[in-house]
């Protein structure tokens, strides 16, 4: 793990301002450290050797420096905390925008995104508030201290200069070990979140089939593993702090012994000896702090590294729609990971056509629609032109409804909210009568994924959403699934009417749905892999 990942500067601009401010405050702090030591050494010397009185005039400069040092340290904390908040805000916004632009198939799963955007990025607080300011000080303070010590005492300067590099060397050795431990800890946390979300979503099914207790045991196992890895990481953190403390204490002791011996034989003055004794620990302090705070910040950096990997995943090629050009699939082959490739597919859909894609279950009808929306990238062949998503209205096989009102869900893809247009779209989709029968009508709140409606009602709301969105390309995946014959007949007429002046591509099983199409495109069926041949 690099102490400062350059990608942080690239993806979170707030880091740059923070670093500039940190360096300015660090320079001020280093100057104040040296001033404080110099003033303190000369005050003690004048009191002990010259018998000077400790009056307000003698102590005032020292008091001012101490107060200034406290003010700079406070400013550092404020700047760091604000920077952490700004960087997290920036990275979260970019992460979510990029994941949305990547679309399904390319973006990470929702559990990974949720863990990264919340707990993962929150761990950057420690990195900004504790680690980075100390890193800046670690680069500045030792240099300033050595420059001040050199003219006063060369032997002590040489001792400090020779022992200082040992701390970063040990830190690097410890860091090599910590990085993998932290990545493992974060991976386990993500797995735990994945599993937990899955289990909560499937709890009714798991309970009915008597597997709920087993899942609780699996979650307990993963949690225990995560606890073990966390404890291991903490052990390394505590041990490495001990090593660094020991190293710097021994180094300061080495300087102190040299000073003591030379004080005794009279080759060193008290003022110089005091200056060296006060300044030497200050040279080691920021390096020790960097080491101590490294572990607290490593989790945030591990999460940030994952965020950068997502941000650097290239977006699919910019799509364009030309409403008057046919959409051509030329020898398109899709191979899902771990599955045999689907048979090559070629066809052309003319503008204004209503086309039904048919074929046995699993032959790739939904996949053709996903390829068209850029959610799935073919391993061979081309689709041209790939439509821009703003020109597409889509009814997936399992329509998604969000937590919100029925009106929110119908108007999801519409440019504005026109109550008359919404009612008419609901009427076209055969949804108006059941919506109006609800006490709150269009303002009825729905739970997650449309909870509170039957499957057929959900289907009709999703269809109303498609009708309301005035898109030139309409993709429908089994639009009449789950509906009774009378409702289906109404919807077929509505789809036919909506298709006027639009290109409509439907994945269709039911003969009644196939019957309304201008043209039927039968997909090649998948031939089973010969026995013994892995997919
Ligand atoms: N995300 C995925 N990962 C792996 N395999 C997938 C994925 N999505 C689809 N498949 C596989 O690709 C094949 C085609 O799936 P697809 O959903 O396109 O078929 P379909 O013709 O729409 O089926 P149905 O009529 O049952 O809806 C199936 O064998 C399926 O298992």
From TrEMBL:
Domain ABC transporter residues, every copy: 327-533
UniProt keywords, alphabetically: ATP-binding, Membrane, Nucleotide-binding, Transmembrane, Transmembrane helix
CDD domains named in the record: ABC_6TM_AarD_CydD, ABCC_MRP_Like
Organism the protein comes from: Dactylosporangium vinaceum
Pfam families named among the record's database cross-references: ABC_membrane, ABC_tran
PANTHER family assigned to the protein according to its UniProt record, in alphabetical order: ATP-BINDING CASSETTE SUB-FAMILY B (PTHR24221), COMPONENT LINKED WITH THE ASSEMBLY OF CYTOCHROME' TRANSPORT TRANSMEMBRANE ATP-BINDING PROTEIN ABC TRANSPORTER CYDD-RELATED (PTHR24221:SF590)
Chief subcellular location: membrane
SMART domains cross-referenced by the UniProt entry: AAA (SM00382)
Domain ABC transmembrane type-1: 20-299
Subcellular location: Cell membrane
Residues spanning the membrane: 51-72, 131-150, 156-176, 236-261
Recorded topology in the membrane: Multi-pass membrane protein
Name this polypeptide is given: Thiol reductant ABC exporter subunit CydD
NCBIfam families registered for this protein in UniProt: CydD
